[in-house]
Amino acid sequence: MKYGVALFLFFSLLLLTNPLLAGIYRYEDERGIIHFTNCPRDAKFKLYIKESIEDREENRQFSLCYIKDSRHYDHLISEFSQKYQVDFALIKAMIRAESGFNPFAVSRKGAKGLMQLMPETAIRMNVSNIFNPKENIEGGVRYLKYLLSLFNNDLRLSLAAYNAGENLVYQLGSIPPYRETMDYVWRVLNFYQSYRR
User: Fold this and answer.
1) Per-residue pLDDT reduced to its tens digit, 54-65
2) Active-site residue identified among 57, 58, 98, 120
3) Which domains does the chain show, CATH number per domain?
């Protein structure tokens, strides 16, 4: 009996220290429509993008520390939504995907703040304090508005450009075939639909 309990505890600890990685699952139906989900409930869905350990840790930190405070910046989102004529739900979805509402977030590539502005982009958008929520959100929304106009209001291309860089997306004329960028576009659109409801 003691041996069975010891084995149970061992395997429980093993599972806790080595969590399964999540990901994005894809399924193309008979009409050619592609469906994505992060919670497959049907065997037709196959793993499309595997979440890395770094992604899991980054997302875990964001969700534990900041996702609960998701309404804290609504007044600023509303202000810049009206000023730049960009959908409130879209801005909020981007902030959630970019930083998990963490105003002090810094990515491995050096993007900073709520809307994860790169330092060069912050300078272009006249953001002097990148960690100031008001300045960061305004800079991010102003940049998104610019991208929407550059890509003729194509939301998917604009989001891809926000993540991977406008020059690359402009040259390709499509979403770059990078896991991170495809995942980012999917997540923002998913959050966007959720906030619109």
Assistant:
1) 444 444 444 444
2) 98
3) 2-50 (no CATH), 53-196 (1.10.530.10)
